[in-house]
What does this fold into?
Amino acid sequence: MTDTVLFDMDGVLIDSEPVSIRILMDWFLLKGVRLTMKDVEPYLGAGEEVFFTGPARDKGLDVDLSEASSYFKEHYPSLMAASLDDCAKALSSAVVRHLRKVGFKVAVCSSAPHWKVLANIRVIGLDEDDFDMVLSGEEVVNNKPDGEIYRKAAKRLGSEPASCLVVEDSRAGIMAGLDAGMKVLGIAGTGDVSTLCSWGACAASEDIGILLGGSTMEQTVDILDRQGDDTRLFGANMIRVRRPDAPAADIQEMIEAAKRTREHAYTPYSHFKVGACVRSAATGRIYTGCNVENSSYGATICAERNALLHAIAEEGTIGVDALVVVSDDDPPAPPCAMCLQVLAEFTAPDTPVILSSLKGDVHRYVFSDLLPRPFIFPSQRK
Ligand code: THU
It folds into this structure.
């Protein structure tokens, strides 16, 4: 059972990015250069050094890194203390104290330099002693997404990786937790809850308040498990997707949408028009596609792959929780084997596949009826 909670710092226990950006911009102003967010954005989250040297190089400014770093250190603690609202401080300190009180071992594992981690701990009204351990970026060779910092923390705390819960907000951080063999709770910020799950978090929440819900260790773990039940796994990479909060489009709506898009099929060679519609498991939204043929016949793209790629282009990695294919055939045509293989990357064996003819003859299957044994890399076979 989970007995150890390992927190990332920035974006989880404290939101320090606006302050860091402000200090950077002030320092550049002192050097006569006005930076905009566009100048800063490429260097966010990439470590302290490039935070200064990146924009400096772009602006043709020579930086004395140690001078920049002292300026940053001098202004960070007071600006941070003034900028963070009292509620955010109270929530972070309450969560850390509560988890320790109910019996968890609690650590911070941040890629930031040690002085900054300590300054942040003070800003939220805590002390180093309020944690069982504080690990910073200087104590590891490999930064996140490598799992070194989390492996190190577990080892020093005498905890098994499987009994550790990592709390992270970024993709690199989630990857680091998974790399260390740990479960990850995602905190919304850089990604929304569905995105965090698709990055591999076993559960995701708007804020860390979810960790206050249990009055014992068991209850806390139970709340997180139930939160995790809200997600489903799709495809070869076990993409984790949270069920949509909004109502999902229904099958009839999908058939109508596929029929409409079928009209756009480009079929000068086969004259066989197909329309397809996939539904995203995360949002309940639907995306359509039609077949588009080519003089070089093999370059033809089928309606099903077109719909799937349309969905990914709009939402990023998705789980498909329903597929509809409409053709003027009797019985209605199933997806070809190539489309099924591509779809297998994003569907679950029980994803419904509905085949409809133009006249309205509807046949219902689940994905595994049509492709029971998709090709999956040996390393990913469960
Ligand atoms: N086609 C599809 O759109 N989906 C399938 O699963 C099978 C075939 C299209 C491709 C081509 O334009 C036409 O049907 C004849 O092969």
